[in-house]
Amino acid sequence: MAAMAFPLLGRFIKNEKLRWIPVGIALAGMIPTIIWTIRTHPNQYVYFNETVGGVKGAFGYYDIDYYQNSSLQCAQWVRAHAKRLPDRKIVIASNMQGFDHYLGKDTSWIRWYYVRYNDRHRKEWDYYIGYSRYVLPSNYNQDIGHSPMLYMW
Known about the structure:
The chain has helices at about 1-10, 20-40, 55-60, 70-80, and strands at about 90-95, 110-115, 125-130, 150. By secondary structure, it is of the alpha/beta class. It folds into 2 domains: about 1-60, no CATH class; about 70-150. It has a 4-stranded parallel beta sheet with strand order 2-1-3-4, with no helix packed on it.
């Protein structure tokens, strides 16, 4: 309905040359969203309007990466940046179901297992990759006296 309103508003403008103004305003208003969509591909489905502060403002109040789409990028980051250890495998823990799918080919130097977010301090790991579903916002940045958390989306 909003899309139909802009051409209707144009009918109230008598000057033929100025009738494009409402449509131009609507298109200009879409520019930040279009830029954001291009910059965040393939994670554009996590978009939140700037009236709530975008993704940063929505974090802690809404599920951001509810489909765990970022798990592929996390696995790619680990493969590109994690240092291989000569005496043992790197241990990755995650609360993302199916994360092992993205590390399946790298079992010679990486070991992965699922651990609930609230149980992560009870296990040994080198990297913890998590997402915010089922985690209370007050727990997001807790220091667990262990290896650093790689990613919280």
